[in-house]
Recover the amino acids of this structure.
């Protein structure tokens, strides 16, 4: 019986570099590394937006929106670094994080467009997780 981990640890074939699925993996890996880091850092500076407007009462776990968003920022930076280092695991963590964001936005009953966008991102994170099962070990193309 061959264990799936044994198959995944085998060296990749250089032909992977030309496969559309590997290129999709590379794109998703890049985006789900950079986006959480940028959004997380922006929780400290609010250049993109005032993030506190997107925080519902049930998710304001520290009682102070500013403090909560600073903690969220740290978590997002860690998640982005995690995706960079170990997408097989952290892609699913980011997907769960996006699900929490969607639920938070639905509580606000106002930002349905943002929630729908985040549903798309959630599926992208799930796709990265699945593609990582095959391509996370492949470094010959870099």
């Amino acid at each position: 019986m061959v264990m799936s981990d044994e198959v995944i640890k085998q060296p990749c074939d250089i032909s992977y570099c030309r496969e559309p699925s590997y290129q999709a993996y590379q794109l998703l890996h890049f985006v789900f590394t950079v986006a959480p880091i940028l959004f997380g850092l922006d929780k400290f500076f609010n250049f993109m937006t005032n993030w506190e407007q997107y925080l519902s009462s049930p998710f304001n776990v520290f009682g102070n929106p500013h403090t909560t968003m600073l903690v969220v920022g740290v978590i997002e930076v860690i998640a982005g670094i995690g995706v960079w280092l170990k997408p097989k695991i952290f892609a699913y963590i980011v997907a769960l994080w996006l699900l929490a964001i969607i639920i938070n936005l639905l509580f606000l009953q106002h930002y349905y467009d943002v929630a729908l966008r985040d549903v798309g991102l959630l599926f992208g994170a799930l796709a990265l997780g699945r593609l990582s099962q095959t391509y996370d070990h492949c470094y010959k193309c870099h």
Q: What stands out?
A: The chain has one domain: 16-47+55-135. The longest helix spans residues 20-45. Helices lie at 4-8, 20-45, 65-85, 87-108, 112-135.
